[in-house]
Design goal:
It catalyses: dTDP-beta-L-rhamnose + NADP(+) = dTDP-4-dehydro-beta-L-rhamnose + NADPH + H(+). InterPro entries: dTDP_dehydrorham_reduct, NAD(P)-bd_dom_sf, RmlD-like-bd. This protein has a domain of 192 residues: NAD(P)-binding Rossmann-like Domain (Rossmann fold). Helix content is 41%, strand content 16%. The strands form 4 sheets. The chain has a 6-stranded parallel beta sheet, with helices on both faces. Helix 2 crosses helix 3 and helix 5 packs across helix 7. The chain is of the alpha/beta class. Helix 3 links the parallel strand 3 and strand 4. The protein contains 9 helices and 13 strands.
């Protein structure tokens, strides 16, 4: 299966590249651009086009959000012309007001913000004009590298002694980039084998947690691991922010449909976080000298 992946520097693009490199049934073509034309799809004979998410649209400049929507629509036009399936990943922030319970996959976000509504209109076009599509809504991504990977930025700021501010009243499900990459490839392989289950799906980590609590766990585990290799650190402090008066804002995605349709389980973010920090420490720790057997 040949995949055409946009936005090469995005953390999800790098995660997909890592996953694809260990498989013989995938050919991954990655481009730096955030938009392509029909000629590009034909040139690499792509079976699927994948667009990574605009990770924090609610916090971005409206012009940037609108530009993303326009780029996705350009990709949509190319996919329609070539009859190529499109995978578009979308951030959970599209559910601007959250929800008291789980946010179901059948529920289309209805934000108040004008720029976010522009992105929703793009999703409506995809649903109406391209039957073979996957709109995959993701929890906040974290990964080892790439743009919007979250974790490297946290580590850098903590080690630099900088204060980190995080909301204690925004509840979400952190989501591993590598887990998303594996899930997407599994879903696409099943589609290629005749599943024919197109539409919107949710994919997130298990265990809802506040942004502040998640950052606090990263800080604690980072310090513990550094002390374990003999490094004494004084990490940056944390400051809890209250962004919502009264009830906390909950963005907890219901991932039932992706489980029932493709057998994709939500991956515990604690396990993924622990694995990534272990990998980071392994790269940082000094290499032990090799003893001379003679």
């Amino acid at each position: 299966m040949k995949l055409l992946l946009l936005d090469a520097g995005h953390c999800l693009s790098l995660g997909l590249a890592r996953t694809a490199s260990s498989r013989t049934d995938l050919e991954l073509n990655v481009v730096d651009a955030d938009r392509i034309g029909a000629t590009d799809i034909r040139a690499c004979q792509a079976d699927v086009v994948i667009v990574p998410p605009f990770v924090s649209p609610a916090d971005a400049a409206p012009a940037d959000v609108t530009a993303h929507a326009e780029a996705v629509e350009a990709v949509l036009a190319a996919c329609i012309e070539t009859d190529t399936p499109l995978v578009w990943c979308v951030a959970d922030q599209m559910f601007e007001q959250g929800g008291e319970g789980l946010l179901d996959e059948e529920e289309v976000p209805s934000p108040i913000d004008t720029a976010l509504r522009r992105v929703i209109a793009t999703g409506d076009r995809i649903r109406a004009e391209l039957p073979h599509h996957l709109i995959v809504r993701l929890g906040p991504l974290f990964g080892p590298d790439g743009r919007d990977a979250w974790l490297p930025t946290l580590i850098e700021r903590l080690l630099a002694g900088k204060e980190i501010r995080a909301a204690e009243d925004v509840i979400l499900c952190p989501t591993s980039v590598d887990a998303v990459a594996m899930a997407l490839i599994g879903m696409l392989q099943q589609q290629r084998c005749g599943a024919d289950s197109w539409g919107a799906y949710h994919l997130a980590g298990t265990e809802p947690i506040s942004t502040y609590a998640f950052v606090s766990i990263v800080r604690t585990q980072l310090v513990t691991r550094l002390e374990g290799i003999g490094e004494a650190v004084t990490p940056g402090s944390l400051k809890a922010l209250t962004l919502n008066s009264g009830t906390p804002l909950r963005r907890v995605l219901n991932c039932r449909r992706v489980l029932e349709t493709f057998g994709v389980h939500q991956k515990p973010w604690r396990l993924e976080l622990s694995r990534l920090l272990d990998d980071w420490i392994a790269q940082r720790a000094p290499t032990a000298p090799i003893s001379d057997p003679t």
